[in-house]
Design goal:
heterodimer, A: mainly beta, 6-stranded mixed sheet, B: alpha+beta, Sortase, Chain: A, 8-stranded mixed beta barrel, 2 helices, 8 strands
């Protein structure tokens, strides 16, 4: 009977003390605290590749650029987004007060710009969340869902794999040409396709196939961008294709700059190397040369339409693309061959000073009151002395 | 034996001279430019409100109203026109707001556009700033945004960028601390500009922000 009661108490006690939805894990510790969440643990790991950055043995995350940010919150949390720090190349949990949680996130890029935070979940590549331990020095044993060896979440990768012409190539104008695009995304389906046909026209469609009518003959460079599940637009060199449309004998010479693409480097911090792609057409002989005005006083020419330039100064740059046609005429800087490039400065911590120093105004007013008071009191006392002397003289006489 | 300390005979005159020098320097560099801008504003406002003319000559010579949509603006390549407060000045684009010497130089020749923020037509937030007062001997631009506080919701702002005009309408005004840059992280439903200056005029204690959205 005694045995039965003890067994009942033991089982009941276990049931009472065990959280219903959690399982006891041996917590991963660091310093005085423990990790309450790690990339790949499944608690908050969706969208993160967990491929690089955080080291649980060091309590730190690092990146090749200033892409690491730290948050801190009161209490023991599994996710913390308060008190955000500046972006840096390294952030550590060192120095965190007891009873607080620190989360460190690593992004693909610096997400904080002068005009907002523009990263989304797909831009985070790693993170850790660490609780510094109770202030009363009690045990930091943790009943949570962090496994002892976090399994990295499957790397979510998306890419644009191909663009091909399925029908209508080499047709006579007006030619209807069919395109088929392909992209992959481990996180879900491709939600949108943005087609640039190479004749200055573009179209956005949820379908990976599209028809386009060309009214000008020549050779056109078509390009497609895919929108992945995380909302990022992506393209690649394999997502370009050449379309040929045959000329009618009566067609006059036509040429134009079709598109200017900023392939990489937009919204990055200075110094930044930015790559560009210019496309164009000429129905009477093709494009001879491409040119880009980088918006910083420099221009560059190339024969393949690919460009690269390093921007050392933060700023907003207007980029223009040009093509040299068969008649040796440069044409471009039209709407489709003009793009805005944002090279970021460090985050603004204070609004520019556009007024007089407050101390100057205060000092000047105090000085004015003092000066005028002294002048008036001086002149009054002088008047009194003069009056006294005049009074004495008149009495003595 | 009692000794009497007496002030140096030149001490009081020196204090008076220094105090009044600082005071008159402040009057000359801070108050006079503000007063000039205020008088100019009141003069144009009286002409516009009571006589419906933009120039004193309009009182005797018939005048065509050409001030609609910035038709009389002087700086139509890179500039800003705010008809309600008679501001018509050049804009210097891509000025680093983190670099005091860079923006101080720019503010001597016009109104600064913060680098890294959107150009007109770019769809994002464009950030422009200029002096409400400054103790510098810059005749035209040391109080150019002094009148920003007189703007009201619905007032028009025209901004020129590379020869194209972009129309905005004032939506709101805010007074913030200098360190409050949270407005740069706000999400705006449509393209927005923010005009910033120090507030109240004659100090740099706070900042006045005027928001306007693209029409």
């Amino acid at each position: 009977m005694k045995k039965l009661v003890l067994t009942f108490l033991f089982v009941f006690g276990l049931f009472f003390y065990l959280p219903q939805s959690n399982v006891i894990f041996a917590a991963i510790g660091y310093g005085s605290g423990i990790y309450t969440n790690l990339c790949g643990s499944g608690t908050n790991g969706q969208g993160d590749t967990c491929t690089k950055g955080c080291d649980t043995t060091q309590g730190a995350c690092t990146s090749t650029g200033p892409f690491v940010v730290k948050y801190s919150c009161d209490g023991k949390q599994v996710s913390c987004k308060n008190n955000v720090s500046h972006f840096d190349t390294t952030q550590t949990v060192a120095g965190a007060a007891c009873g607080t949680t620190t989360e460190i996130d690593v992004y693909k890029k610096s997400c904080q710009t002068l005009f907002g935070w523009f990263c989304n979940d797909g831009d985070r590549v790693d993170y850790l969340t660490w609780y510094a331990g109770d202030c009363n020095g009690s045990s930091t044993s943790y009943m949570g869902s962090v496994p002892t060896t976090p399994t990295p979440a499957p790397a979510e990768q998306s890419s644009c794999t191909s663009l091909s012409v399925t029908k209508g190539n080499n047709s006579l104008i007006p030619a209807t040409v069919s395109f088929a695009a392909q992209g992959t995304d481990s996180a879900g389906p491709i939600s949108d396709y943005l087609y640039y046909f190479g004749d200055g026209q573009e179209a956005e469609s949820p379908s990976n196939t599209i028809d386009h009518r060309f009214d000008i003959s020549g050779s056109f460079t078509a390009k497609v961008f895919i929108k992945d599940a995380a909302g990022n637009w992506k393209s690649s060199s394999t997502c370009e294709t050449t379309v040929s449309v045959s000329a009618s004998p009566l067609e006059t010479q036509k040429s134009a700059c079709s598109n200017l693409f900023i392939l990489s480097g937009n919204y990055t911090q200075a110094p930044s190397t930015v790559t560009f792609r210019v496309t164009g057409y000429d129905n009477k002989g093709g494009i001879k040369q491409y040119k880009v005005d980088f918006g910083n006083g420099q221009t560059q020419e190339s024969t393949n339409g690919l460009f690269s330039s390093t921007y050392n100064t933060a700023g907003t740059y207007t980029i223009h693309g040009y093509v040299l046609d068969s008649q040796n005429i440069w044409t471009g800087a039209n709407d489709t061959c003009t793009r805005t490039l944002y090279i970021e400065t460090q985050s603004l911590t204070s609004q520019p000073n556009t007024g007089s120093p407050t101390w100057f105004t205060i000092v000047a007013i105090v000085g004015g009151i003092t000066g005028i008071s002294l002048v008036l009191s001086g002149s009054l006392s002088t008047q009194k002395v003069v009056r006294k002397r005049t009074h004495k003289k008149s009495r003595s006489s | 034996m009692k000794t009497h300390r007496t002030a140096h005979p030149f001490m009081i005159p020196t204090i008076i001279a220094v105090s009044l020098s600082v005071f008159f320097l402040w009057l000359l560099t801070v108050v006079v430019p503000i007063a000039f801008v205020e008088l100019n504003y009141q003069y144009h406002k009286i002409l516009a409100d009571f006589f419906s003319v933009s120039d004193i000559r309009g009182l005797i010579i018939p005048q065509f109203r050409l001030d609609l949509k910035g038709a009389t603006s002087k700086y139509t390549v890179n500039g800003i026109t705010i008809p309600a407060i008679f501001v018509d000045e050049p804009v210097i684009y891509n000025v680093d707001p983190n670099n005091a010497s860079a923006y101080t130089a720019a503010l001597k020749i016009g109104i600064a556009h913060a680098s890294g923020t959107s150009f007109p037509g770019g769809g994002g937030l464009g950030y422009y700033f200029a002096h409400s007062s400054t103790p510098a001997f810059v005749v035209q631009y040391n109080a150019v945004f002094y009148l920003l506080g007189k703007l009201n919701a619905g007032d028009e702002i025209f901004i020129w960028h590379e020869g194209s005009r972009y129309d905005y309408r004032v939506t709101s005004k805010e007074i913030t601390t200098p360190s409050d840059v949270s407005f740069l992280k706000r999400m705006f439903a449509s393209e927005t500009i923010v005009l910033q200056t120090c507030w109240p005029p004659g100090t740099s204690a706070e900042r006045l922000l005027v928001f306007a959205t693209k029409e």
